Amino acid sequence: MLSRFFDRKPEPTPGAAQSALSGPKFPRHSGAWDQLRKQLVAAPGLRVLDVGITSAANINLLTNLGHSVYLADFIQDSISGEWRLDKDSGGAQVWDMEGFANSSLKFAGRNFDIVLLWMALDYLPEPFLVPVVNGLYEAMVPGGKLLCVFNTKMTPDVAPHFRFHVTLTDLVEFQAAQPVRLQRALTNRNIERLFAQWSGLKQFLAKDGVSEAIITR
């Protein structure tokens, strides 16, 4: 669900959110972030949705650049158990997807210019994948930019879940977050299909088992 709105003066990060992060931060070049960073520096006054555990670094940097920052954590929302219903007659899990969409994908009618989705799509349970992409499409302004990071290999037992912290350079800092099992490694063709209704897709060369994309609403 929409976690909180930060308007120029961020509030202290909740302790519960911080406890889900562990270990040092590791910087990594990000071509996708470098491109969005230039837009964020040049055009203050944008609405930015940052997906993941609360990052004080992200809030401070983005608000200092003059943007409004909203937070959401689709992974924690989807695995919380709140949306699990009784299993069907065949033993398959049934999900309250309408409830999830109403709670986590409406954003009180706000529309975003930038969405930092990071690696969320790789860790969502299967029923949540398409609804999250469609919900973000509806919640973004035409021409808005969405940044995604993807695992390029399906290694669920070893692929860590990260929180991403932005900087004023082309580097993004990775920090280990609460363990979540990897659900998928999307191929380029999978990504193109998933974002078929969007107006543009720019993919960046894979490095260290990770690829990036900027998708235009």
What would your notes on this structure say?
- This protein has eight helices and twelve strands.
- It is an alpha/beta fold and 217 residues long.
- The protein has a single domain, classed as Vaccinia Virus protein VP39 (Rossmann fold, 3-Layer(aba) Sandwich), CATH 3.40.50.
- It has a seven-stranded mixed β-sheet with strand order 1-4-3-7-8-12-11. A three-stranded antiparallel β-sheet has the order 2-10-9. A two-stranded antiparallel ribbon has the order 5-6.
- A hairpin with an 8-residue loop joins β5 and β6.
- It starts with a strand and ends with a strand.
What labels would you give this structure?
217 residues, alpha/beta, Rossmann fold, seven-stranded mixed beta sheet, three-stranded antiparallel beta sheet, 12 strands, globular, disordered N terminus
CATH topology: Rossmann fold
Largest sheet: 7 strands, mixed
Percent strand equals 25-35%
> How much helical structure, as a percent, in the residues?
25-40%
Separation, N- and C-terminal Cα atoms: 21 Å
Going by helix content, strand content and strand pairing, the class is: alpha/beta
Annotated CATH architecture: 3-Layer(aba) Sandwich
- How many strand elements? 12
H and E order: EHEHEHEHEEHEHHEEEHEE
Provide mean pLDDT, rounded. 87
Q: How are the elements arranged and paired?
A:
Layout: E1 2-7, H1 15-18, E2 21-29, H2 31-42, E3 47-51, H3 56-64, E4 68-72, H4 74-79, E5 84-85, E6 94-95, H5 97-104, E7 112-118, H6 120-123, H7 126-139, E8 140-151, E9 162-166, E10 171-177, H8 188-194, E11 200-207, E12 210-216
Parallel strand pairs: 3-4, 3-7, 7-8
Antiparallel strand pairs: 1-4, 2-10, 5-6, 8-12, 9-10, 11-12
